[in-house]
Amino acid sequence: MDPLIILFGLGVGVLIGMTGIGGGSLMTPLLIIVFGTQPVVAIGTDLAYGAVTKTLGAWRHLRKGTVDMGVALWLSVGSAPGAIVGVVAIEVIHNRYGDSFSDFLLVSLGVALFVVGAAILVRALFLASHVARERDTVPMTRRTKALAVTLGVLLGAILGLTSVGSGALIGLALILVFRLSPHRVVGTDVFQAAILLWVAGLTHLAFGNVDFLLMANILIGSLPGVWIGTNLMTKVPTAGLRIALGVVLFASAFGILKKAGADYGLSVVVGGPVLLALLCTLIYRVRTPRPQVVPS
User: Fold this and answer.
1) In angstroms, what is the C-alpha Rg of the chain?
2) How high is the mean pLDDT of the chain?
3) CA–CA separation, 25 vs 56, rounded Å?
4) Whole-structure pTM value
5) 10, 23, 189, 250: most buried, per Cβ within 10 A?
6) Class of residue 225 by CB neighbours under 10 A (exposed 0-12, middle 13-18, buried 19+)
7) 240 burial via Cβ count (<10 Å: 0-12, 13-18, 19+)
8) How far apart are CA 81 and CA 95, in angstroms?
9) Tens-place pLDDT, residues 37-52
10) Using CA atoms, how far apart are residues 145 and 22, in angstroms rounded to an integer?
């Protein structure tokens, strides 16, 4: 047992329960940066533990009524085979190019996290018209089903290749494309990710990319963490939830790019996300109208 890994698992589990993000966006960078795990093994182990963790989260969200079953299931129709393609692709490319591919994989992961985090924050702070159009349920027309399957294939492939997507990219799609409200985004994302991660995790397992001891240590912390996070989710203000989604991704991106060789210190890795959170909070307060006081 490694207490530090268990502690990280607990923290990431809480974030998964609250935001739907935490697996590929946080745990994979932590395994690579802090524990020196090989990128391919970090991705495979993260997906395998995430399958178990998000299954618990999915059950909790299903009971709370925060899952849009139509969107989740149609996304899974595309994302499951897409994830298999992504895992096979990473295995083939890694076997051919070896360590040089690991550096490319780290940079790709970091850039993807920056892009997704920026998109979420811009929408939360500046696209008020989009926020006003949020909904709790998506009518499953033929066009919506086709769109969900297509997005599922693309995002599933990205997940299998980088382990990012189960919380970050799929969550972004649920926000921007399907316009779900934040709490429905989290519940639907976690439920759909549970299906997707089992497919991707088992495929990585078949290629020998899963470290079972490492996975067991993470699960000891992450399972109670998810339980705590899902209970806290409905108590977190909607605006805070949106901002947290973006800032968490930026924190992961700074760390993973430093591992890839970016020339900046720990002050940027830690201080950058903290300053970003403070800036976003300030912008939100300035742009949010204060409630009018009605004289008695």
Assistant:
1) 18
2) 81
3) 19
4) 0.75
5) 189
6) buried
7) middle
8) 22
9) 888 888 889 888 888 8
10) 27
Q: Is 293 helix (H, G, I), strand (E, B) or coil?
A: coil
Residue 81 has pLDDT above 90, yes or no: yes
Give CA–CA dist 179/181, Å, rounded.
Answer: 7
What b/e readout covers 169-201, taking b as 16+ CB neighbours within 10 angstroms? bbbbbbbeebbbbbbbbbbbbbbbbbbbbbbbb
- Closest by CA position to 84, among listed 202, 254, 245: 202
List the Cα angle 237/75/154 in 5-degree steps: 105
Q: How many CB atoms lie within 10 A of CB 154?
A: 16
Structure tokens at 101: 């591919």
Asked whether the beta carbons of 176 and 25 are under 8 A apart, the reply is no
Q: How far is CA 155 from the centre of its chain?
A: 12
Of residues 171, 193, 177, 178, the one with CA closest to residue 245 = 171
Angle (CA) 260 2 46, round 5°:
50
* Residue 135, phi then psi, degrees to nearest 5: -145, 160
Structure tokens at 227: 């339980």
DSSP 27-51: IHHHHHHTT---HHHHHHHHHHHHH
**Residue 96 has which token pair?**
């051919």
Q: Among 56, 65, 58, which residue's Cα sits nearest to residue 225?
A: 56
d(CA 50, CA 202): 11
Phi, psi of 234 (to 5 degrees): -70, -10
pLDDT in tens, 137-163: 788 889 999 999 999 999 888 888 777
d(CA 186, CA 166): 11
- What pLDDT sits at residue 112? 75
